[in-house]
């Protein structure tokens, strides 16, 4: 099986222009232990649509799951 067939065209993410302020905020609130964002005592895990909005990227196949 080809990498692209399994994971899609993830290389497109290299061309997404990031907002520096947004990136600093995401890094500041990310909790690597729980793999989610922590705001005071509340944890938050964005959904694909929210990532799509933050990255200004249209994910074509919303049902595809990306694994490490």
UniProtKB/TrEMBL annotation:
This is DUF7745 domain-containing protein. Pfam families: DUF7745. It comes from the Eukaryota. Residues 3-61 form the DUF7745 domain. PANTHER family: AMINOTRANSFERASE-LIKE PLANT MOBILE DOMAIN-CONTAINING PROTEIN, PROTEIN, PUTATIVE-RELATED.
